[in-house]
Amino acid sequence: MFDSLPLPPHQWPSMQPGWVWLCGAGPGDPGLLTIHALNALRQADVIVYDALVQECILDWAPQAEKVYAGKRGGKPSALQRDISLSLVELARAGKRVLRLKGGDPFVFGRGGEEAQTLVQHRVPVRIIPGITAGIGGLAYAGIPATHRGVNQSVTFVTGHDQSGNVSSPNWKALAEGSQLLVIYMGMKHAAQISAALIENGRSADEPCAVVCNATMPRQQVIETTLGTMAADIEASGLEPPALLCIGRNVLMRQVLDWQGQMGGEAVRDMDPLNMDAVAAVA
């Protein structure tokens, strides 16, 4: 599989027995996997994978044992400590271990906790970043994370804390200082999140998008506003995993919905009242 790659096969990193490679699988579309991740898949003896990793990605590792360790809200899930210690046990048994996580392991993926446990137990670890959903998912929805003349910053926020309740960042600071908010795992708490932001000064009319199953063939996107987002989510019947995107960048989808255009949809006319919100669009 490496014949056409920039480096000859012997120059790609070699996974050694007793090592754990902590790897991001990207937001879903297997084409967004990195070459380093493919290299790891082809060498692993055992793959410990999360709920958001697609089965077709695992098919690239026919030689490996697959161990499911996914965690989904509201469903029976493995404890994080047990997952981390199982990686230690597999490595100590001399296995080449690939810990495969959706998105990027260090962006709301608890990869830091797992890497910390491995280091504490003197298990060597290699980190392979992945495309996080907050970047790749928005791109597949036709929403730039940054756009000149619209925003110079983007803030990633988790929608719930470790107990499963709505997260408690400084909503006042986020409402006042964050031009674009991208909220992971926030669908369940959309009403509380919207209320907190509006209470702290964000407009109820601010453009928002909900991106479900980002980058996958079943991806669905709701365009809404901060004030109606929770009701629109409920009416849609959509289920997680989903991203909430709050900010004027959402308006760019009116001209950059490239997947819709590939399916034959016409480019929409920009709302004249919102043209100033998407400066530099020509």
TrEMBL record:
Single biological process term from Gene Ontology: siroheme biosynthetic process
Q: Which domain of life is it from?
A: Bacteria
Class of this enzyme:
transferase
Which InterPro entries would you find in this protein's record?
A: 4pyrrol_Mease, 4pyrrol_Methylase_sf, 4pyrrole_Mease_sub1, 4pyrrole_Mease_sub2, CobA/CysG_C, Siro_Cobalamin_biosynth, Uropor_MeTrfase_CS
Q: Does the keyword Iron apply?
A: no
UniProt xrefs under Pfam families: TP_methylase
Gene Ontology MF term list = uroporphyrin-III C-methyltransferase activity
Q: Does the keyword Methyltransferase apply?
A: yes
Q: In which pathway does it act?
A: Cofactor biosynthesis; adenosylcobalamin biosynthesis; precorrin-2 from uroporphyrinogen III: step 1/1; Porphyrin-containing compound metabolism; siroheme biosynthesis; precorrin-2 from uroporphyrinogen III: step 1/1
Q: Domain Tetrapyrrole methylase, which positions?
A: 20-229
The EC number of this protein is 2.1.1.107
Q: What family is this? A: Belongs to the precorrin methyltransferase family.
The name of this protein is uroporphyrinogen-III C-methyltransferase
